[in-house]
Design brief:
This protein is an alpha+beta fold. It has 8 helices and 4 strands, in the order H-H-H-E-E-H-H-E-E-H-H-H. It is globular and about 40 Å long.
Length: about 230
């Protein structure tokens, strides 16, 4: 048991220290933004993975996630995300940066990259992004979303009381039957470095206090076109 707890602590510490060890520059944050833009374009560019227009028109928020998952017995998932919310006036916010991670224990082996878009279907779920730590699977009901290729099903009601629809692509190989504690949290460092401000998630997502830099205009315009 002592060895188990020691190993678990080491993995947790490693996950926490990796961002600090590598440093964070504006160029790195811009690269993360570009990757998330590409993920959304890739998912929308393939009918097998695309989010239907009807779902996008009803969306109250989008979270675009890039993660890498690896493990043997212990598993660790680390990555980043950007989130945008639709404000009461119908306009979309600037993208805010998140950290996305997970620590798990169970029968598992392998590694894969995980690209996903979480579509938030109500305002209460979108406001979970303001928390210091959130788990959309635990604090809201998340299910796999209906694909654009399944047009005959688009008009169906959301499954059960689902308020998060997940659209994803994966690369690599991963086998698992594990207990997981997934989470996302605001990346205050990334937001401060990119926007050159100390404003936090409420101001970034729900106010006009931050002028959108040139680098975010493409994703904001693209999301606006998708969700009309």
């Amino acid at each position: 048991m002592k060895k188990f707890l020691t190993a678990l602590f080491c993995l947790s510490a490693l996950a926490a220290l990796l961002p600090a060890a590598t440093g964070l520059t504006r160029e790195t944050v811009v690269a993360h933004l570009d990757t998330c833009e590409a993920i959304l374009q890739e998912i929308q560019g393939n009918a097998k993975t695309a989010i239907p227009a009807d779902v996008l028109r009803r969306a109250k928020g989008l979270v675009i996630v890039n993660q890498f998952q690896a493990g043997f017995i212990f598993g660790i998932k680390d990555g980043y995300a950007v989130a945008l919310v639709r404000r009461p006036n119908g306009k979309w916010s600037v993208p805010a940066f998140l950290k996305a991670g997970e620590l798990s224990f169970g029968l598992q082996a392998g590694g894969k990259s995980i690209n996903a878009v979480y579509v938030l279907m109500d305002d209460d779920t979108a406001r979970l992004l303001l928390k210091n730590r959130m788990n959309l699977g635990a604090e809201a009901k998340a299910v796999a979303g209906i694909r654009a290729a399944e047009r005959e099903a688009v008009t169906k009601a959301l499954p059960g009381d689902a308020n998060v629809l997940i659209y994803s692509t994966t690369e690599g190989f991963y086998l698992g039957a594990a207990l997981k504690t997934g989470y996302m949290s605001p990346s205050e460092d990334a937001n401060r470095v990119f926007y050159n401000t100390n404003h936090r998630m409420p101001e970034l997502l729900f106010s006009d206090w931050v002028t959108p830099p040139q680098e975010v205009r493409f994703i904001m315009d693209y999301v606006t076109r998708l969700t009309r």
